[in-house]
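call fold(seq) -> tokens
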Amino acid sequence: MKKAVALKYQAGKDKAPKLTAKGSGIVAEKIIEIAKEHNIPIKNDPDLIEVLSKIDINEEIPPNVYVAVAELLAFAYSVNRKKKSQ
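ret:
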């Protein structure tokens, strides 16, 4: 079954990224659909999704996944930079 999570992070405001949505099946598909509608970068990482899906909504990510989420944020920033330069 498909799973999805959404993170939010505002540099300078948030101490760490927070989980803003999570779900499986139809809910996961809706999360992905909304992300696509708003041009939010999507990355498929089942292992990270599994870890993050155990976190409560609006909870900061735990320190043990900082590196994985930092890589995800670097991916998102890279995608956004490419879109802006086009």
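The helical segments are 26-37, 46-52, 66-85.
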